Amino acid sequence: MAQFKENMKCPGVKRLMREAAELAQPTEHYHAAPLEENLFEWHFTVRGQEGTSFEGGIYHGRITFPLDYPLKPPSVMLLTPNGRFEINRKICLSISDHHPETWQPSWSIRTVLLAIVGFMPTPGKGAIGALDWSDVERKKLARKSNSWVCSSCGSVNATALLPPTETTKSDKDKFAEEAKKYAAELSFKAEKEKSSTTESEEAGASSEQVAAEPEAAPVAEPAQAAPVEAAVVVAPVVTPVPVVQSSQGSVCTLLMVYFLIMCIGLLFVRRAARTMYNELFYTEL
């Protein structure tokens, strides 16, 4: 993973590198590690819980992380046939990308592994990627799972985890209780989120229905007469303007014509008077 050291400024790379160091050594309950060529794709192996139909089974899977992990949840899928989750398909859990609303950045890869182990004995309830096979079929798959080999990373289930020992019985009980606790808390949180979402949707629908009722009143109201009256009042004010302007223009034109006629008349009168004067003056001489 040396090629990722230059990207240590990225929060996702820094977080995954730290978790890779914490999970470097396998335990008898789980193990997870990133692929050599891709830090954001991890393969994991978990052991089935004792006292369940998965007891004695070892299950391999894949976790794919987004670039902004841990702000967003990873996607999880099982690769080993198990009878609880479909293989090679993203499973719907409260800690997967199917429910980003329930994801918490404080959760880690270990949290995801514990949740998977805790959820395996629970009913599928028709969730995405869930199976509800019988206990008999699950026990058969649990026995076969030990010889399963991953074609992608080459991990062998039989040797992927440390063998269980009697001296670690207290650790087994602690691990089982922790897995059940995570499964119960996550299931409760998912149901709470689901019920809150349902209540919000119902409340929203009710408010929309209530708000829609008073809106019907304005529809029945007649058209307001105010705009019509305003149009009637404005019309007489606008129309006389061109009439007055055209009358003033006509008067001015008439006055100019009258003035020209008067001037021409005066010229003719003057000329006629001069002519008469000359005739009289020259006649007397």
Structure description:
The structure is a single chain. This protein is of the alpha+beta class. The chain has two domains: 2-193, Ubiquitin Conjugating Enzyme (Roll), CATH 3.10.110; 239-284. 51% of the residues lie in helices and 9% in strands. It is built from eight helices and four strands. The protein has a four-stranded antiparallel β-sheet. Helix 2 crosses helix 5 (169-212). It is rod-shaped, with a radius of gyration of 48 Å. The model is unreliable at 216-246 (pLDDT under 50).
From the N-terminal CA to the C-terminal CA, the straight-line distance is: 144 Å
Number of strands: 4
Shape assignment: rod-shaped
Secondary structure: helix percent: 40-55%
Total helix count? 8
CATH class of the largest domain: Alpha Beta
The main sheet orders its strands as 1-2-3-4
CATH architecture of the largest domain: Roll
How would you name the CATH homologous superfamily of the largest domain? Ubiquitin Conjugating Enzyme
Percent strand equals 5-15%
SSE order, one letter for each helix or strand: HEEEEHHHHHHH
Q: Largest sheet, described in full?
A: 4 strands, antiparallel
Mean residue pLDDT: 79
Radius of gyration: 48 Å
Which stretches are low in confidence, meaning pLDDT under 50 for 5 or more residues running? 216-246
